[in-house]
């Protein structure tokens, strides 16, 4: 089946992005932490533990009284949710027939008890689920959220819970004069790429270091005279000072060379200018290059020659005046009337 377009957006809840399952009312058969594992769920038949068949997911006990089960996820990347996936892979006779999702934006670091006392917003009403399937639910609410709560009715198992959307960073928690302009967690996003055969180009700007080759961006082998490239819309207009091109884990398939160019008008002919000239790269190496801080840009293009894989792309610098205004306005627009307060001790 065709997947919704919003599934191309990053998973804000993924453990790889720093997400965490902070609470569940029950996890007798399978642990709640499995919900946000980045890899697809697996199943090994006839693998039994002391509580029964081992499932790669979250599974609660059979209810013998009225009620429902819940799990609360802290988003690794707070932001605007475009859609969620309730994946019941391999749960056939034990999946929940219905689920709903709520969300909340909270300042600070509240405990599960404090979260439970706050008012949550429903972003997916109680809806039917199919077993052993990805269940897709689009979300219309355009507010920024920090936590989501999955409710299943009445009990059962969910393999994975994906929360796709757009990260929106809090400017109060950043030094806007010196940070990564190309970071996903700061609001940057990949808007175009020549090839994504082996892995998604958005991996390039994901948080943290890649731990394996599959956590980077890798293209198919070229059999022509061209080269591969990716375009990143930065967090906001900024002036770069340092570029980082990381080929860690790419050994026999690293690009031979790379270059960077920038613009404030990506659609205008001739508007792109050089940020880093074509430069030789080494395999399995974190390269760092000072760049001329003379010109502002809103978009960055990475060209690799001729093809291959890159683990991470970083562009350190500071926002311009207009960039600061746009960055703060994005946060304020998505946060209006959506932030709840935990206790003052969490500030």
Automatic annotation (TrEMBL):
GO molecular function: allantoicase activity
Stored InterPro entries: Allantoicase, Allantoicase_dom, Galactose-bd-like_sf
Pathway per the UniProt entry: Nitrogen metabolism; (S)-allantoin degradation; (S)-ureidoglycolate from allantoate (aminidohydrolase route): step 1/1
Keyword terms of this UniProt record: Hydrolase, Purine metabolism
Domain of life from the UniProt record: Bacteria
Catalysed reactions, semicolon-separated: allantoate + H2O = (S)-ureidoglycolate + urea
EC number: 3.5.3.4
Residue span(s) of domain Allantoicase: 18-167, 187-317
Residues annotated as transmembrane: none
Broadest EC class assigned to this enzyme: hydrolase
Similarity comment text for this entry: Belongs to the allantoicase family.
Cited NCBIfam families: allantoicase (TIGR02961)
Name used for this protein in its record: Probable allantoicase
Species of origin: Amycolatopsis cynarae
Source taxonomy: Bacteria, Bacillati, Actinomycetota, Actinomycetes, Pseudonocardiales
Annotated gene: alc
